[in-house]
Amino acid sequence: MKLGFIGAGNMGGAIIEGALRGGVIAPDALYVSRKHPEKSEALASRGVHVMGDNLSLAKAVDGVVLAVKPAYLSQVLEPILGALEGKLIVSIVAGWTFEMLQEALPASARFVRAMPNTPLQVGEGMTLLSERATCTAEEFAFVRALFEAAGKVAVVEDRIYEAASGISGCGPAFVYQFIEALADGGVRYGVPRALAYELAAQTLIGAARMVQVTGEHPGRLKDAVCSPGGTTIEGVYALERGGMRAAVIEAVAATREKSGKLTK
Hints:
The chain is an alpha/beta fold. Helices cover 50% and strands 14% of the residues. It has two domains: 3-158, NAD(P)-binding Rossmann-like Domain (Rossmann fold, 3-Layer(aba) Sandwich), CATH 3.40.50; 171-259, ProC C-terminal domain-like (ProC C-terminal domain-like fold, Orthogonal Bundle), CATH 1.10.3730. It has helices spanning 10-22, 41-45, 54-60, 73-77, 98-104, 137-148, 161-168, 171-187, 193-214, 218-225, 231-241, 244-259, and strands at 3-6, 30-33, 49-50, 63-66, 88-91, 110-115, 125-130, 151-156. Helix 7 crosses helix 12 and helix 8 (171-187) crosses helix 9 (193-214). It is elongated. 30% of the residues are buried.
């Protein structure tokens, strides 16, 4: 399959890198169109086709990945609709629902919604695929393999797609905030900044792997670290007193609310 990317910024570029690294698709089967073509020189040097405009890309490929900002998608689609007839469309555009895509795309186009996250850049991505799709089973499997080349994939019901996106799609930003805050706590008492970041980041990596590998409830793993009357439970109490749990839940809720407003 010849696959084209309309938009190859941080996210589009990460998907491309994962696909190339994982051998899911050959460089000469990849096509890229972006606002600033000169930023794709590195891809061009590896054999990826850098196209001058979206229409020429759409005509040249079998499938298109829409990787543009939500507010721009309508104007991006309008001049290329004819070239999308009968083709696979993968949308990673936040806020564009199944119904909106169904209305905006040609009736013969087959599409699926995907929500990756930026850790795809280091091969540790988490991508959501909506199970509500109009593409064939073979095309769905190809899309899944495309994202699995750079991390994990979860197929979710369309009704929870936006809420789940608030966890994995937006979650890295929340995690970075926690890493920064955790490091700041050490810096406050004399830990060098670089060391504090290393300690905080590796601690999150290790704790996350414990959840994945052991299958234990996060609460039980937390309890195992909290000795009665010890130092850790004092820190846990401080976080609870500060409303961390509620703040994180509210953060996910805020992303879901914003997602519904992006295209209005």
